[in-house]
Amino acid sequence: MALQHFKTSEFDAAVNAAPLAMVDFWATWCGPCKMLSPTIEALAGQYDGKALVGKVNVDEEPDLARRFGVMSIPTVVFLKNGVEFDRKVGVMPADAFTSVLNANL
Amino acid sequence: MPYDVLVIGGGPAGLSAAVNVRARGRSVLVVSNPLEENPLWKSERVDNYLGLPGLTGAEMLQTFRAHAEKSGAEFLSGRVLNSALMGDTWFVSIGSDVQEAGAVVLTGGVTRGKKFPGEEEFLGRGISYCATCDGMLYRGKKVAVLGWTDSAAHEADFLREIGCEVTYFSRPKTCAISGGDAVTEVTCDGVTAEAACVFILRPTIAPTDLFPGLALENGYVAVDRKMATSLPGLFAAGDCTGGPLQVSKAVGEGLIAGQSAAQWVAAHRKDSGAPA
């Protein structure tokens, strides 16, 4: 599945149904987020069929950002059937994310 | 627009690097704090720069900057926050902006000040290095800004404009950040302020925070004779590579780093075309 752009209304149904999901909280006014963006897009392709990879724009979906206590962006949250089990804050190389995904496939 | 070379820092090393990248016909962007915030700006007299003794630090910086501008270097004011190498391209974020380049020359000077107690611990839970990035998450809340430059004061104003209740600490010496699950307060030089987020806006970010995995030697960026660092396409020059912390040394290293960066781009960027 290609990269998902989550709205608050559809978020829970999507991540609850996913055995493994990775969600990037970002905003257009954040340089580091823009920099991380190509990595997230590449991972969406790479983990197609294995993990749900999506993004949440904190400006458009402030409730989701609040619910996950996102205090600095970019923040990438990892979930199993909707339950968070890990998160990474800040720009990181792709292997910081793949190591978490691979260990939980 | 991607640049051939991006230079971090607009002091003697960075400006020398920029002039020498241009001398090799390559495009270059210099990202720096305002000239007046360079430590050299305050030097009343520099007597050991060959052939030009007696200039003030400010005169030297202005002369160097004018030279770099005339050579065709481009400039962007701001602090570099992050970097990432993807393929053969370096991505560098500056506030809300991202720039791309084939090679990077790091001339960030000496990072002054160690991290504060609580800073590492609360990273991502109420510690931020970027007001434009994270400010919106704290609208209507109390925040603290620790600033050492005029630019930091401007970032505090930005936070006030978007609706944060800001306590500004100017050039604090000792600070400690505390809280529970997240930051709740910061104490600087005996004054405590309630804060949901502490924005720490140092003039320069430590090289190893900017470039994860970068090798150091005795606390300075490790470089070889070509001013190449341990990371591909990343060169360094000036005070950040170690002493003597002198203008002549910075200018000389900047020249080598600029030439090496231009050479790197020529060898590794097949798509970069002929020098302009």
Structure description:
The complex is a heterodimer of chains A (105) and B (276). With 105 residues, chain A is α/β, with parallel strands linked by helices. Chain A is built from four helices and five strands; from the N terminus they run βαβαβαββα. Helices cover 39% and strands 26% of the residues of chain A. Chain A has a five-stranded mixed beta sheet with strand order 1-3-2-4-5. Chain B folds into two domains: 178 residues, FAD/NAD(P)-binding domain, CATH 3.50.50.60; 75 residues, FAD/NAD(P)-binding domain (3-Layer(bba) Sandwich). Helices cover 25% and strands 29% of the residues of chain B. The longest helix of chain B is centred in the last third of the chain and has 22 residues.
List the helices and strands and how they pair.
The complex is a heterodimer of chains A (105) and B (276).
Chain A: E1 4-5, H1 8-16, E2 21-26, H2 31-46, E3 52-57, H3 62-67, E4 75-80, E5 83-89, H4 94-103
Parallel strand pairs in A: 1-3, 2-3
Antiparallel strand pairs in A: 2-4, 4-5
Chain B: E1 3-8, H1 12-23, E2 28-32, H2 57-70, E3 74-77, E4 80-86, E5 89-94, E6 97-106, E7 127-128, H3 131-134, E8 142-147, H4 150-161, E9 165-170, E10 175-179, E11 183-188, E12 191-194, E13 197-201, H5 207-210, E14 216-217, E15 220-221, E16 234-236, H6 247-268
Parallel strand pairs in B: 1-2, 1-6, 2-3, 6-16, 7-13, 8-9, 8-13
Antiparallel strand pairs in B: 4-5, 5-6, 10-11, 11-12, 14-15
Helix pairs in contact in B: 1-2, 1-6
Task: Write a brief structural summary.
Chain A is an alpha/beta fold. In chain A, 39% of the residues lie in helices and 26% in strands. In chain A, β4 and β5 form a beta hairpin.
Mean pLDDT across every amino acid position of chain B:
93
Main pleated sheet of chain A: 5 strands, mixed
The CATH class of chain A is Alpha Beta
Question: Which chains share the greatest interface?
Answer: A-B, 27 and 28 residues
The radius of gyration over CA of chain B amounts to 19 Å
Number of helices of chain A: 4
User: How many domains would you count in the coordinates of chain B?
Assistant: 2
Give the biggest beta sheet of chain B.
7 strands, mixed
Count of domain modules of chain A: 1
